[in-house]
Structure formats: C-alpha cells, structure tokens
Design brief:
This protein is α+β, with helices and mostly antiparallel strands and 519 residues long. It has four domains: 103 residues; 97 residues, Helix Hairpins (Orthogonal Bundle), CATH 1.10.287; 139 residues, no CATH class; 107 residues, no CATH class. 19% of the residues lie in helices and 43% in strands. The strands form six sheets. Strands 2, 3, 5, 8, 11, 13 and 14 form a seven-stranded mixed β-sheet that branches. A hairpin with a 3-residue loop joins β2 and β3. α1 packs antiparallel against α2. The N and C termini lie far apart (87 Å).
Length: 519
C-alpha cells in the first residue's frame, strides 16, 4: 500500500454552528492512484471528535473509503520566541531578557556598594587606631577616603539608574503582557491530521467531503433596532465565538438551535394512582383560599425553567448567512449579519405604577424578517444615537413584538393604595375594599404643545372559586376604565397636555362568605 507523506490541504468550507459546538465540513479534490493508498490530510483541529468523523468520496470510477481517523502529534515549543511569532511576542521576550539582565546587574551593584561601605568603615577604624598610636599619614588617608567616596558615589548613581530602568521596564512588561492577552494567541503545540485509507479501481480525480464535530464554538442572536419616526429597522445578527484552533475563512455559515447533546429518548412513564376520599365535616364548613402571583404570557411560548442556550420556542430553528463568513479562532465575539427589515411601528407611552413609577416609550411592530426572532439583546438607536440596550422575546414570523425605548424623564406617576375590611349582614360576609389612586404629571418645555396619550395599567384579583367574588366599583372609579381583560388587567388611556396633571382612581371589592379562610 502506497503512502503519501506530504499532507494534502483540507480547508474548512462549511460550518453549522450549534449552541455549544460546531459541525465542520471540509472538501477537497484528490488525485488518486489505482489501488489502495493511505493519504495524510490536514492539518485539522486537534479538538475534532473522533467518533463524529465521516468521509465520502465521489468520482467517475469506483472508489471506496476503507478507513478514516484523526492522528494527533504533540510538538513542544523550544525556549524563546520562534521565527513565526508575532512582533508583540518578540517584544515581550526582549523585555523579559532585559529585565533579567538588569536584575543581575542590580545585584552586582548592590554587592559592590556594600563592599565599598565596609571598606570605608575599615578605613575609618584604621585612621582612629593610627591617630591613637600617634601615627599621622594624612595624605594617604585623604587619598584613600576620596577614592572610596568617589567609587561609592559612582556605583550608587549607577544603581539608581538601574532601579529606575527596572521600574519603567516593569510597567512596559505589564502593558505588553496585557496587549498579548488581548491580541495574541498561544501557538498550538498539539496538531491533528486525518489519515484516509482509500481504494480506487482506476487513477483519476475524486472529490472528498469530510465532516466532523468540534467543541469550543457557539453562537447567540443579537439585534439592532433603529427607530426613525414611524419607521423601525431591525437588523438580526449572530454573535459567533470559536476557539477550535483553526480559523474559518470564507465558509458557508449555518446557525442552528439543535441540541445534539440532549437525550432523545422519551421519559419512562410510571403509574399515577388517583383515589377519592370523603371530606370531613370541618372541611365541608371551611374553604381555604390564598393569594398567588401568576405570570401572564401573551407573546410566544411559555418560558421553560432551566432551559439552557437559545430560546427557540421548542422547535429547532435554522438560520443561514447569505455571504461567506470569516471567523478567526481567537475566542472573541464576531458579529455576523443575518437579515434586516424595515416596517411601520406604533408608539405608546405606557406605565405600570405597581411595578415602576416611570413612563416608558413602547414601540410595537410586526416581525417581517421571514424567520423567527429568537430571544436576545437589542441595541436601541433613536434620534441618530445609541440610547441603551433592551431585550427581545421569542417572536414567530408575522407575530407582533414590542420594544421599550427607554423612559420619559418628564413624566412621573405616584401610587397610593388604601385597604378597608368590613363584615356585613347576618351571613358574616367579609368585604375587602381596596382603593388605588394614581397621580400622573408631566413637566414640559415651554415650546411643547402636543398632548401625550399615556396607557396606564393596574390589576385586580381574579377569583377561581364561587365562594370569593371580585367586583369593580365603576360608580366610584374616576375615570371609568377603558378596558378590563380576563386576567384582571385594568387599562386607562389618559391624555396629558404639556404641564398637565391627572388623577386616576381605582376601587374594587373582594367579598367572601363566612366559610372562606385565609383571605
């Protein structure tokens, strides 16, 4: 069997990016010889999953793939920078070598200065002893002291220069290391190749298609909404990260929400026995109730607790890029455009005083992108500038969606709630009366003349048992609510002129008979 020692290039041509991995496709045209031969292809990412490797050959003559495997080789880096390293890494190495050399020089200077200090002390001690014995060598003592002082000054100055250079060098080295962490990558020491064993009945070209799964790649949706009057432009992008060890250059990119790592087997069904039991006399005389919060979801599917990754509404969504895409293997986020559409939008000033005293500008529009809008962050642009970031929920094609473009600084809402409890009649009915007053105000500039329609929403309880009745006192409410839906959301359309003030009063009663406990 012939073996080709030279590796054949096998570039990445298509990538399907999943939530936490990527399905990579490679294609190449091989010039095969007649008979059985082993080809070395690559290099490929060393992170390729071996069991996912699949190779297909197509040619005018019969060809068969006998074996395909990933072979990895570890080549440790030698000390010091390599010739193909970046200029930043060479600069970092030079700074480290200079720091090491200056450190050694500083140690030698410290030793020399210490020796000169001890020499000066010995010389002064000799002068003291000689003077005590009546010896007088003034000229020699003066020369020796002057020489020692001159050398101490010289080497002390050199030591100060070295210390100053080491301080500046530490700052340069720290900046270079931060720059290398942000811009540079460590060269790979582990490389992979594909060994392909094929059998061809005749010599000739054959087209190879090889696919495998690679971890360390993921994507998430991101949006950019531009509001211009009554027109809204929504750009759908994909943020792609990958650190697979090889760059994706000019590939066909497909984005999928498929979760290949999740188990596909249905859960086991167990027995669930239901039994009937007579209520006791005390249970017949008492009805236990409690107040609970319910989240109302009117857009998209109900959220699933603990679902990781992208919210796709429970159905696998596939998005494709129209143009070729290049994503380097640097572990950073790269924005890839997917689609864009412009549609008419309606504005609404809305507030829910029970949740926030702010009045927000809500923009409603219809999804005309042709595909589902997955949940993700939205960069909000209005008035020619960036005003903040919001969140877009899952929106089916053609379904309505809304975005909050920030709050109005010149609108305020104050909320006051009062509650009274009374027992009426011989049946000892408990009546709970709740009064909510909302004070709306608008502070406007002198040049403003138009009125703003503010949509105010409050809520009242919704009873699930006939023993508890909830009634809205429309005769006391001021003004009368414009709408009350089945979920207990009360809505008013309040017109606010420049500098205007309005007060909204909501009164409702919760009545329960004597059997009800827990209200």
């Amino acid at each position: 069997m012939s073996t080709n020692p030279e590796p054949i290039a096998l570039p990445v041509t298509a990538v399907t990016c999943l939530e936490d991995r990527a399905h990579v496709e490679r294609t190449a045209v091989l010039d095969l010889e007649a008979g059985t031969q082993r080809l070395r292809l690559g290099p490929v990412s060393a992170l390729a999953v071996d069991r996912s490797l699949h190779a297909e050959l197509s040619a005018d003559h019969p060809v068969t793939v006998l074996d395909a495997r990933v072979v990895r080789a570890w080549t440790p880096r030698r000390p010091g920078p390599a010739e193909d390293d970046s200029a930043l890494r060479h600069r970092l190495t030079a700074l480290e070598e200079e720091q090491h050399s200056l450190g050694q020089q500083r140690d030698r200077l410290h030793t020399r200065v210490d020796l000169l200090g001890r020499l000066a002390a010995d010389l002064l001690r000799e002068i003291g002893e000689g003077a005590g014995l009546g010896e007088a060598e003034k000229d020699r003592w003066s020369r020796e002291l002057d020489r020692v002082d001159d050398e101490r000054d010289t080497f002390g100055e050199r030591l100060r220069v070295v210390d100053a250079r080491l301080t500046a060098l530490a700052a340069e080295l720290s900046a270079a290391q931060r720059a290398l962490e942000l811009a540079g990558t460590e060269p790979a020491e582990l490389a992979g190749h594909v060994e392909l064993t094929v059998r061809a009945d005749a010599a000739g070209p054959a087209r190879l298609r090889l696919t495998h799964v690679t971890p360390c790649a993921l994507w998430r949706p991101a949006y950019r909404a531009v509001l211009d009057g009554d027109s809204l432009t929504l750009d759908t992008d994909a943020m792609v990260w990958q650190r697979t060890g090889e760059d994706w250059s000019g590939v066909r990119l497909t984005l999928s929400t498929a979760r290949s790592a999740r188990a596909t087997e249905p859960p086991r069904l167990g027995e669930d026995r239901l039994t009937l039991q007579d209520r006791s006399t005390a249970e017949r005389r008492t009805v236990h109730v409690e107040l609970r919060e319910e989240e109302v979801a009117d857009l998209g599917p109900a959220p699933v607790q603990g679902l990781p990754g992208v919210d796709d509404g429970g159905e696998v969504r596939v998005l494709r890029c129209d143009a070729a895409v290049s994503v380097p293997s640097d572990g950073r986020a790269h924005r890839v455009p997917l689609s864009s559409f412009t549609t008419t939008a309606s504005r609404e000033y809305a507030c829910a005083p029970e949740l926030s005293p702010l009045v927000s500008q809500v923009v409603r529009f219809e999804n005309r992108s042709g595909h589902a809008l997955l949940a993700g962050p939205v960069d909000l642009v209005s008035g020619g500038g960036f005003i903040g970031r919001g969140t877009l929920d899952f929106t089916a094609p053609g379904a309505p969606a809304d975005l909050a473009f920030g709050s109005r600084d010149d609108h305020r809402v104050l909320r006051h709630a009062e509650e009274t409890r009374d027992t009426v009649g011989l049946s000892q009915r408990t009546v709970l009366t709740r009064t909510v007053r909302l004070h709306l105000s608008r502070f406007s500039a002198p040049a403003e003349r138009d009125e703003h329609m503010v949509v105010v929403r409050e809520r009242i309880p919704v009873s699930e048992t006939s023993a508890v009745e909830v009634g809205l006192r429309t005769d006391i409410c001021s003004p009368v609510p414009d709408e009350v839906d089945a979920d207990g959301i009360v809505r008013w359309n309040v017109s606010l002129p420049p500098g205007g003030r309005r007060t909204v009063t909501l009164v409702y009663e919760v009545a329960a008979n004597a059997k009800v406990k827990g209200l």
